[in-house]
Amino acid sequence: MPHSDDQTYAIPAPYRRMENLHILFWLLKDIGWCMVWKPLGISMIFPTLAIALVITWRTRGVMSELAHNLAIVFWISANSYWMLSEFLGFDTVRVWGSFTGKHLALIPFLTGLLILLYYYLVQKPRETEPKKVAA
C-alpha cells in the first residue's frame, strides 16, 4: 500500500487514447520502413511526431514524464531521419570521416540520451532529497 506522501501519476482517458493512437502510427511508420513502403513510412512521420510532441507538452509539469517524453520525441526524430536517409539513398554517403548520412541520426539519439542522463543523475536526486527546513 502506498504511503500518503507518494505521488501518483494518472493518465486521463483521452490522453490514454491519444497515446494508443501514437503507438499505432509509430508501428505503421516502422512497418513502412521495414517493408520499404515509402509512402506509408514517410506519411506516418508527421502524426507520430506530432502526437509525441502533444504528449510531451501535456506532461511538462511532471519532470520524470517530461524527460522521458522528450527522449521519445528525439528517438522518433532520429528514427524518422534514419528511415528517410535509407529511403532517399543518402544513408551511405560519407559526411565526415567514416560517418555516413545515417550516422547523423546519432545527434537526436544522443540528445534524448543526454536528457535522460540529466534527469537521472541531476534532477531525480534533487527530487528525492529530503527537504531541509530551518528549525
Automatic annotation (TrEMBL):
Record-annotated membrane-spanning stretches: 35-54, 66-84, 104-122
Task: From the Swiss-Prot or TrEMBL record, give the protein name.
Answer: Uncharacterized protein
Keywords (A to Z) from UniProt: Membrane, Transmembrane, Transmembrane helix
